[in-house]
Amino acid sequence: MSILCSLYRLTEQQSKNLLVFPEAVSDLLGYAPPPTKSSFLSRIFGKSRNDEPSPRRKLDPVVESETLELNQAWHILHYLLSGSDAEGEWPSAFIMSGGHKIGPDLGYGPARLLNTELSKEVADFLSAPSRQALNAAYVAQDIQAAKIYWQVASEPNERQRQIEELWSMVQDMRTYFDRTAQAGSSILVHIY
Questions:
Q1: Distance between CA atoms of 6 and 107, rounded to whole angstroms?
Q2: Strand 111-114 to strand 186-191: parallel, antiparallel, or no bridges (unpaired)?
Q3: For residue 151, which phi and psi values (nearest 5 degrees)?
Q4: What is the predicted pLDDT for the residue at 1?
Q5: Residue 43: which residues within 8 A CB-CB, separation 6 or more?
């Protein structure tokens, strides 16, 4: 089973709704809520109207065009940008830390909301990394010693291909966060 990460661009209204109804985060992420299980006694005696759960706010899922999939590269990207295997300093560690935790644990902790201001800080941070810096940070022994969730290439051509792929993802994140900042939107980070 793979550990993945996705970023979701939220409108101002989606962010407001999520802060009021944090349990609806699974709706935004496109998860169907689990079916309600009835107890043994309620199956025998039936449920009274007073036992019904309160209505849950339903939010429309974030559309695919507003989503950026980091897939399995999330941990190596976090490491290369922050120099850390876990949390780290803001904003370099935005993939694994920072923001406001929203709703229940949906896999590897709750989703995190990076409000408009935090999203702008990440956009500014992402304007600095260079391909050369990424290449210099990609040291196979260090990545393996840090136990990063990533299969390090042992062959030079494959290593170069991985760096090109990762650099392309950094550029995609740069564009994604720039557009988010320009729109005054927020981002929901979800590791699952």
A1: 12
A2: antiparallel
A3: -95, 105
A4: 74
A5: none
Round to whole Å and give the CA distance between 58 and 131. 42
Q: Is the dihedral of CA 153, 7, 179, 102 positive or negative?
A: negative
Taking 3-state DSSP, the helix, strand and coil percentages for the chain, each rounded to the nearest 5, stand at 50, 10, 40
Rounded to 5 degrees, what angle do the CA atoms 3, 7, 8 make? Answer: 135
Domain boundaries, the chain: 5-32+42-191
Report how far residue 122's alpha carbon sits from residue 119's, in angstroms, rounded to the nearest whole number: 5
CA distance 157 to 178: 32
Q: Per-residue pLDDT tens for 120-150?
A: 999 999 999 999 999 999 999 999 999 999 9
Query: Percent of the chain scored above 90 by pLDDT?
Result: 82
Question: Above 60 in pLDDT, residue 41?
Answer: no
CATH architecture of 5-32+42-191: 3-Layer(aba) Sandwich (3.40)
